[in-house]
Amino acid sequence: AERVVTFADARPRVDYASLATRYPPFLPRPTPAYLSEMSTLGGLLGAWGQDDLDAGPPVPVAEVLQHFEYGDPEQMAAAEQFRGAELPFKITGVPEVQRAGGKWTVDYLRQQFSKDGQGFTQMSRNNFFLHYLRGLWDTDVLGPYPSVSTRMTFDRWAAAAAAADATSLPADAAHHYFHAAGAPRAARFRPADAPAPRTEGSFIAAD
Fold first, then answer.
1. Prior bond to 60 cis, omega within 30?
2. How far apart are CA 11 and CA 39, in angstroms?
């Protein structure tokens, strides 16, 4: 019998973490040339088409954003400079994120996402998922809604996601998307030193 790929052992066709990557040299402060190094969305899609994701991006992957290590005072000082200039960058080695990553096993995610209020699924007609306001979408002018809500549970979605990776789901086939619940407004705007109730909002915010 044909082996069924489950969510627990599914692997994407492109393992981004294993691809050779070229990083930019460290910048202690923003430079005028920083933004000019970045590509447009059109340029990104031209190099790696959204209808052929399993082909993978050009290798080595050319990172242009600065990467700052959380535990390095000099790099965090640079991050403050970039944040003050409202320029994009990445921070690596954040302890809270690393702890959450170690905690989020497949079984743990399945358990948490199976609870009410932790997420929902939507389906689009193809691989183009459009964010829109339903109340402003005129179906007489624009046609059917580009995506619809479904009653798919997390386990069913996970199985569909594993099958999509295993079979390279075509770009023009129906795609299902799982939306994890975010933190409620009260949690997002709570003072940093205020205690956070474990029952408030999503487990992602709590973890």
1. yes
2. 29
Contact yes or no for 70/95 (Cβ under 8 A): yes
Of the candidates 57, 51, 45, 62, which has an alpha carbon nearest to the alpha carbon of residue 16?
A: 57
Question: Element (H or E) spanning 187, and its range?
Answer: helix 185-188
Count of Cβ atoms closer than 10 Å to residue 203 Cβ: 19
pLDDT tier at 85, thresholds 50, 70, 90 = very high
**How does pLDDT run across 43-81, given as a tens digit for each residue?**
988 888 889 888 888 899 989 999 999 999 999 999 999
- Please check whether residue 123 is in contact with residue 169, taking contact to mean a CB–CB distance below 8 angstroms: no
pTM: 0.77
Residue 162 · residue 136 · CB < 8 Å: no
Residues 6 or more apart from 180 whose CB is under 8 A from it? 113, 118, 119, 202, 204
Could you tell me which of 95, 44, 97, 37 has the C-alpha nearest to residue 66? 37
CB 200 within 8 A of CB 186: yes
- Over the stretch 108-156, which tens digit does the pLDDT of each residue have? 888 898 888 788 899 999 999 988 999 999 999 999 999 999 988 888 8
Q: Which residues, at least 6 apart from 49, have a Cβ–Cβ distance to it below 8 Å?
A: 55
Angle at 39 between CA 33 and CA 41, to 5 degrees: 145
- Please give the Cα distance from 149 to 176 (Å, whole number): 10
